[in-house]
Amino acid sequence: MAATKLLNFTFPASPEHLCTVRTKLRDTLGSARFPQETIDCIVLAIGEACMNIIQHAYCDGDCGDIVLEIVRQDSCLVFRLTDFARHKSRQEEMQSRPLDEIRPGGLGCHIINEIMDEVELLDCGNRQGNILQMKKELTS
């Protein structure tokens, strides 16, 4: 089966736009007839990833957009979040704090890694910004 693009959505990198992103995700995945539990988990993971981009890539007054792409490749969904921030993230920066350290925040990467089957920061060459790619295998 060839790859099928399900969504290409650009939105401002600010928390007030995350509700729209979650709605877009639910509409797109719902119309593709994915189970509600799968949709809920994906919406949670993508929301966490977007918030991390807003807080950590677009930091120090930097602002811009995020592009969310969803592609279905056979039994796998591929999600790409592209930002255009001046900050170039590194894979080693994307770590959760220890789970036994009880305090608010810092669990986004853990949640994303628990839900997604693969999480990778792609090299976007010399241009500024970051591309976070996540894959979710679909079980039958």
Overall description:
This protein is an alpha+beta fold. It has one domain (4-137): Histidine kinase-like ATPase, C-terminal domain (Heat Shock Protein 90, 2-Layer Sandwich). It is 31% helix and 28% strand. The chain contains three helices and five strands. The protein has helices at residues 18-31, 36-57, 108-115; strands at 4-12, 65-73, 76-83, 118-122, 130-137. The chain has a five-stranded antiparallel sheet. The longest helix is centred in the N-terminal third of the chain and has 22 residues, at 36-57. The model has no long low-confidence stretch (mean pLDDT 87).
Helix segment tally: 3
As a whole number of angstroms, the C-alpha radius of gyration is 15 Å
Widest sheet, order of strands: 1-2-3-5-4
- SSE arrangement, N to C: EHHEEHEE
CATH topology annotation: Heat Shock Protein 90
Proportion of residues in β-strands:
25-35%
| Shape designation | globular
In the CATH scheme, the class would be Alpha Beta
The count of DSSP E runs of length 2 or more, i.e. the number of strands, is: 5
What is the CATH H-level superfamily?
Histidine kinase-like ATPase, C-terminal domain
Q: What is the end-to-end distance?
A: 16 Å
The helix fraction, in percent, is 25-40%
CATH architecture: 2-Layer Sandwich
Would you tell me the overall average pLDDT?
A: 87
How many domains would you count in the coordinates?
1
Biggest sheet features:
5 strands, antiparallel
Structural class, judged by helices and strands?
Answer: alpha+beta
Unreliable spans are: none
